[in-house]
Amino acid sequence: MLLVDGESIRYNLSWIENLGAFGRDPVASLSNLLDATRHENPWTREVLRGIRAPGTGFPLLIMLGTMRRLSGKDFCVIYRRNPVLVLNFKNEKFERWVIPAAEKNVALLKARGFLD
Fold first, then answer.
1. Could you say which of 24, 25, 31, 64 is the most buried, measured as most Cβ atoms within 10 Å of its Cβ?
2. Are 51 and 67 in contact (CB under 8 A)?
3. Model-level pTM greater than 0.70?
4. Phi, psi of 104 (to 5 degrees)
């Protein structure tokens, strides 16, 4: 679930998600969030770019962790064929976050003006 604390935004992972992602909750500055888009199918080249390293991945089932490519890296939390939100950042550890399009996440981004 997305959380905003002052000027930072965080995607809060459960302990089992942290284990599967081989990492910790991603945190970024809210001022570095450029925009967010919703995608109905997360298993496309438009959404998933690069190779998973480190993390857990089974095609069409789960993708947790970091997707690396030459131009940067993304943080992914994808379950089955559920819709996702892609958050684009500048000057952060992860260029993009690909997270579930849960109602709470969508509502938070709409309230902040990042999602139509």
1. 64
2. yes
3. yes
4. -65, -40
